[in-house]
Amino acid sequence: MTAVTEQWSARTRAIVAGRPAGTGQPMNVPIAPASMLGLDYAREDGTPTWAALEDALGELEGGTATAFASGIATASAVLDLIEAGSRIAVPGDSYAGTRALFAHAKQTGRVRVETIAPTDTAAWTEAASRCALLWLESPTNPSLDVMDVGAIAEAAARRSPAPLVVVDNTFATPLGQRPLSMGTDIVVHSATKFIGGHSDLLLGVTVTTDDGLAGRLRQARTLGGATPGALEAFLALRGLRTLPL
Ligand SMILES: Cc1ncc(COP(=O)(O)O)c(C=O)c1O
Questions:
Q1: 27-68: per-residue pLDDT in tens?
Q2: For a surface tag, which of 61, 100, 116, 177 has the fewest beta carbons within 10 Å of its beta carbon?
């Protein structure tokens, strides 16, 4: 892959990251529609096209990325990290599909769910003391409420055990906000939206700086099977190159 320099702007890194490097290499990442690469099985080990997208988004968010079949598949993978019976908090205004997934997990007895207004930072910091997961979305879909991600992450870090702080960064994009640099644990994207940019794909991505969490998210993809398509990964990477600031 082409080396990317920290001094470059996020805009430039979005254009360069994840491209093949070296003499004779194609400038753009090829689509690899293969379930086996040598002895590697794609659902477990990934493909070069997924890896290029993961490299680029990992570079922009500042962590290790894993591509999934959709944004909602990333929320399912995060739920997989949470012990059964735990309490989780979700913004009252946030993507309806995410709240539907959490409501379903509540209905089946998997977790307990608290709904908190996105801008009620005091309630979020208080929830950090009793929740295993704080699911943030900022700006929210559809109201575009902005959450105080830094303050909530800081409050969470003071707790022992600290809840997992996850940010759905779909609407900010990594060019507008880098939640991992604010002390959060995992960033998720519905790349279906701004990253894809053309309403012609479904895809999701998780990013984390924690190697243990990165491994568990990758394992959730392998076990759950919510893998991206080859064409979708190619198109998402192409969309990322022209992501507006
Ligand atoms: C903020 C946000 N998060 C998650 C999702 C779910 O993503 P997907 O439709 O790719 O499963 C959406 C979809 O609209 C969204 O807007």
A1: 999 999 999 999 999 999 999 999 999 999 999 999 999 999
A2: 100
